[in-house]
Amino acid sequence: MVIERQQLSASVKDVAAAAGVSLGTVSNVLNRPDRVAAATREKVEHAMAELGFVRNESARSLRAGRTRSLAYVMLDAGNPFFTDVAQGIEHAAEGAELSLFLCNSDSRATREATHLEHLEQQRVQGILITPVDPDSPALDAIARRGTPLVIVDRIRKGGAFCSVAVDDVLGGRLAVEHLIDRGHRRVAFVGGPLSIGQVADRYEGARLAWSTAGLPEDDLTLVAGESLTVASGRSAGERLAGIPSARRPTAAFCANDLIALGLLQQATTAGLRVPEQLAIVGYDDIEFAAAAAVPLTSVRQPRQELGRAAADLVLDEASNEAHHHQQVVFTPELVARASTLG
Amino acid sequence: MVIERQQLSASVKDVAAAAGVSLGTVSNVLNRPDRVAAATREKVEHAMAELGFVRNESARSLRAGRTRSLAYVMLDAGNPFFTDVAQGIEHAAEGAELSLFLCNSDSRATREATHLEHLEQQRVQGILITPVDPDSPALDAIARRGTPLVIVDRIRKGGAFCSVAVDDVLGGRLAVEHLIDRGHRRVAFVGGPLSIGQVADRYEGARLAWSTAGLPEDDLTLVAGESLTVASGRSAGERLAGIPSARRPTAAFCANDLIALGLLQQATTAGLRVPEQLAIVGYDDIEFAAAAAVPLTSVRQPRQELGRAAADLVLDEASNEAHHHQQVVFTPELVARASTLG
DNA sequence: TTGTACGCGTTATCAT
DNA sequence: ATGATAACGCGTACAA
């Protein structure tokens, strides 16, 4: 048997010809099967199978003026935090019978812009995005031109769109309050560039907790890294391990779990015992945090809920005339594990 | 200033009217800017900005008969292995000026089917997929109907499509040969269901190495789990830790790194020292493998290259008349770390 | 250099 | 119950 690959996909017109009916009847079989006689319908369905007919979504959405899809532009597909958020969105999309397209900007503004341009041209029903820069006017332009857009994991006050986030200042406070409770009096904040909003907020929360406890400002050290990655955590670990123990912070609060994992590894390699000589708190509570050989204390964010809430908002904006923009802020929670509980 | 949200997106026709030129001229500005006088072009571009004109991709691809996008249907977006593969694909897509849509089947055949149906209707230029079941006839049907399709991380011999994979049998052999070299004579294979091809192949490689070394068959134990997850690794750890030390395997070869990380954590919790009492080899060499507090020996696969090769094949099939289906098999490599090197 | 007319595949409306 | 036809927005050949 030879399997032929069909060269050009058949259209409703071809199906109609093959079945010996009119074009309108084929359309009825597809969209209002009840209005067509059983015998006719069968003939048409047979022809469709025979010809390998596949509906053309471009034509459909051109006609309909809207597509049946949603998109999420991720900041970093390699970070489990964002894939969990995506999963929450996926569930919502599935419920609404929409396709979800995931795009990865990989923290690059140019790639993000390209994705956004394509998505806008595709006329997706809505765009969810964790942006490289939440204040970029490009986002406003998209909303102004009519595509519902929701910012995920960042708050944009007074903007032309909804946003869903977690209270990062509070998260930072929880982390450092926990360390202070455990008796730490020299703490390092290990984070990516403060230009990243999430990082800046978590640092602010940390300093708030610190000053509220009346501790000397200088004893909360800032160890700035270039990015929120495992590699960045490792190099921070080297720097910390290099400090004489009398002056070395006894605990580190990391801006996310990737950094914390890198720090944990490097610190252990350098001979520091965790948490006896260095306690570590991460952020996000990704699955790998609990799976680390010294399970990581971390600040948990409701990741899937974040995604679902964002999707619900964008769907509401897409379909509800009376939609009102809103800023949703979830509350984080500290999960204490061995890396601080020695 | 009040920012109006435009209700309906403007078409080329609207732009033409606003600019006081004909529709064809607007089209020329878009597609052959050189054929239009500078002054006219400027007028048109001004009108476009004014009206917030966005090209309608549905109309474009309906006219063109093809879209400008590619899709990758992932088996598990939460597994870093697949996000790395996706990144390789993304680079290739970027180079070809195509959008890449990521879809996640989450190991569910129904969700996968839905995604495939949508993608086929979208007329994407090609579909890359790590399928739930590589032998599903649904895949053949898609290829037969004309959408180029490439299987990623599985080989399908004699099929109507290309496939790109890594030699999992060899990978399994490398892992177990390494353990034998290190003196282990009782080894456990910890894996998801053998119905997953990757798992079955790695197990086969393990047994091959074992019998080649002339070791008694019974001393290579199979510890079957339900899935390739951290949680599954943990429960395997409980089972191993429960075995009296005289009979307990001295090493475990895990079907992937997620399992290995779970196993590592649980074994440590149960008081087993790694690698002295239990050596561990993972598979995939995801970033977190090296970052584990006992860095994991693992079998590395060229993840990004896998994605890039698959994308190149699908693009070739989409554009090259003389395309010939091929099966590409990459070679894995063992990365030895502390979890076996005690 | 600019304008006009047609077709891409689908769907909805109207007429038969 | 079924068939004919217009419209969605764009690109392009062809005419002016």
Automatic annotation (TrEMBL), chains A, B:
Gene3D superfamilies: 3.40.50.2300, lambda repressor-like DNA-binding domains. Transmembrane segments: none annotated. The keyword Cell membrane does not apply. The keyword DNA-binding applies. It comes from the Bacteria. One of its GO terms (molecular function) is DNA binding. Residues 10-64 form the HTH lacI-type domain. InterPro entries: HTH_LacI, LacI/GalR-like_sensor, Lambda_DNA-bd_dom_sf, Peripla_BP_I. Keywords: DNA-binding, Transcription, Transcription regulation. This is LacI family DNA-binding transcriptional regulator. It comes from Nocardioides panacihumi.
